[in-house]
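so my prof wants the structure for this chain in the tokens format not the other one, which i didnt know existed until like an hour ago. anyway here's the sequence
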Amino acid sequence: MTSCTAKRNSVLAAALALAFALAPGAARADYAAEAARLKNAPAKDATMHVLQTGVAAMAEGKTADATGLFDSALDSIEGMFANTENAAKARSLWYEEGAKDYKGEPYERAMAYYYRGLLYLAEGDYENARASFRGGILQDAFAEEQQFRSDFAALMILEGWSSQLNGDKDLARETYAEVARLRPQWAAPAAGANLLVVAELGGAPRKVGDGIGNHEIVYRPAKRMPERSLKIEFDGKPQQVALAEDVFYQASTRGGRPVDRLIEGKVAFQNTTGAIGEALGTIASDGSVYAAAAGGGGGRALGAVAAVGAIFSMVSVNVKPRADVRYWNNLPETLHIGAVNYQGLPGNVNVTLFDDKGQQVPADTLRIQKWIDKKGNGVVWIKTRNN
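here's what i got, hopefully its the right format
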């Protein structure tokens, strides 16, 4: 057994042990249920369940547990680029996807870095937060072989925010300028802003088997999750957030081109000439991707940056007959982000949800977490669905 394989196995074993320890005494059923699924998951599916358990931990305010889970998941994802037999199988075009260790689609890997970055922000570790968000941008950038483009604006917004809190004004300004090309409706935070607001609406994109023998994959939005926008009040005062990311769009496109279906290792693109990405803007320039790869920052994202050479040479969407329909099931459909100047954390956070017609819809599964660091910078994280 190679040292890389041994390390990867030990990481997953630690995550499984953590889940076993947490499940009996978990405070709420959601976390307990995810931890139990992780405990009983086949080894090839373990990373997917680690990610789902990590989100459940965050939703219940267990940041230390979530940090350990996301660290183990990212170790596994980055291990896909190692020089091992299992890693080679994970990258192989002709190895049946459902039999591989779960590595996630590009948008799922990008979201793993997103959550780890939020946890760094909650700790007040702005440098590693920025590095983690950059790691997610890289995963998105290499979603299509030889394209090297990224349009994951939410990660760019959060990278800019991390730079702003870290006192790197020039880096923040450059990043926000790139965001402006993608999301003209999103205003850069004011210089004195100290409270980040992130709202996750709806449910995860679904991968569904299609065609004879389920040889094909198509993407579908989450079912029966009508919320499309929201109104937020802190202690009775309205707060502004704007649509930053459509995660379903990220799932169902490659390099900005809408995917019709995935079949036998190839991406079949929709033949469309207009209205690509209704909620989104234009594709970001190659320069932002190369800047992310070459930029500073350490910590968790170093593995993603170090693996750039390997990503260049791989096709990230490889589907064999009996296609892999595993997906991270407690991701959101959309991300809404804002930043304000606030004294401390709000005592009361009131959230009202609306459907695509502007009609109010229930918010009975809403989770809200609030964190503030030693420098007085905070995060309010809102999630409308658990799965």
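also thought this was worth mentioning. DSSP finds 13 helices and 14 strands in the chain.
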